[in-house]
Amino acid sequence: MSTTKKIIYGLYGDDDLLLDGVKQLKDKGIKISEVYTPFPVHGLDKAMGLKESRLSECAFFYGALGLTVASLLTWFTMNHDWPQNIGGKPSFTWADNVPAFIPIMFELTVFFAAHLMSITYLFLNKHYPGQKAQNPDPRTTDDKFLIELENQDYEQVKEILIATGVEEITVKNVEDEKVN
Q1: Structural fold of domain 2-38+143-177
Q2: d(CA 8, CA 32)
Q3: Which of 23, 60, 72, 176 has its CA 20 to 30 A from that of 145?
Q4: Which residues lie closer than 8 Å to 45 by C-beta, 6 or more apart?
Q5: What phi and psi, each to the nearest 5 degrees, are found at residue 150?
């Protein structure tokens, strides 16, 4: 069984007009599926009612993981596996030699946080290798802004979009395959 759903696209030429359009659509209770912009628009996330990202919490835990790995690596290497007397300083305990390990600990903390955050970002946004781009209009990578709405009352949406200064409105019918 397949159903047809309507997708309405409103194309703007200015980020202020886009922000106004988003606010007016949200005030009328119209759900916005996605907004495509060529650069970050300040206040757009709040206007759309998006939740605050938890990526900063992930960054903290990834950094803590890097610090833990660095601490275990330096302890294992310098105290357990191959203890050496370097510069007349015996390595009986890891804590006595921590100042020598701080650069390693810092670097691995940053390394783990940066790399794992990049992987997490790509995973959460479904940017897998070899995946086709999901952008419906390539002009949004240059200088245009696009609002995407699904299954809405076309006439009501059209009036709001025109009132907010939209340059172009496109309606696309998409077949949605459902298997029971």
Answers
A1: Alpha-Beta Plaits (3.30.70)
A2: 10
A3: 176
A4: none
A5: -115, 140
